[in-house]
Specification:
Layout lengths: L1 H11 L1 H12 L6 H20 L4 H21 L4 E2 L10 E2 L2 H18 L9 H14 L1
Antiparallel strand pairs: 1-2
Helix pairs in contact: 1-2, 1-3, 2-3, 3-4, 4-5
Length: 138
């Protein structure tokens, strides 16, 4: 759910987020839209794969790779103040250990999910995930 929302965020906010992607990666501004597209595609693919039991492990590993990449890119920017694209609103803030820890923790959680036995997707799963997310980040 978080992955799909993040991919949608990249589509809706591409004008603001493309320069951020370029800055975080240390590449030129021309690569920002390409990097943003690749990140959003990886997030959406991971979200879809996580819903398909035979592809769940691939989805979890892909999610872990995406979030670990974000953590590494943010870690390289620690101490700087920037709009990391982590929020829906444009807001420059210092890149602190907590900002880096969020994607790192999500990467660790995704890796843990990759080790769980396959289970069918049920209607209550998105609501349980939303409740877990809310209790964790609210």
């Amino acid at each position: 759910m978080l992955l799909a929302a993040s991919a949608g965020h990249k589509v809706l906010g591409h004008q603001r987020l493309a320069p951020i992607a370029a800055r975080l990666s240390g590449s030129g501004a021309a690569l920002g839209p390409v990097l943003l597209l690749l990140a959003g595609a990886a997030e959406m693919a991971a979200a879809v794969f996580l819903l398909i039991p035979p592809l769940r492990v691939i989805g979890a590993v892909l999610a872990a790779a995406v979030w670990a990449s974000y953590a590494l890119l943010l870690w390289r920017q620690r101490g700087h103040t920037l709009d990391c694209g982590c929020d829906l609103a444009a807001r420059a803030k210092p890149v602190t250990a907590a900002v880096v820890a969020r994607p790192a923790g999500l990467a660790a959680l995704a890796l843990a999910v990759s080790t769980l036995p396959a289970a069918p997707f049920t209607l209550d799963a998105p609501f349980a995930a939303a409740g877990f997310w809310h209790s964790t980040w609210a």
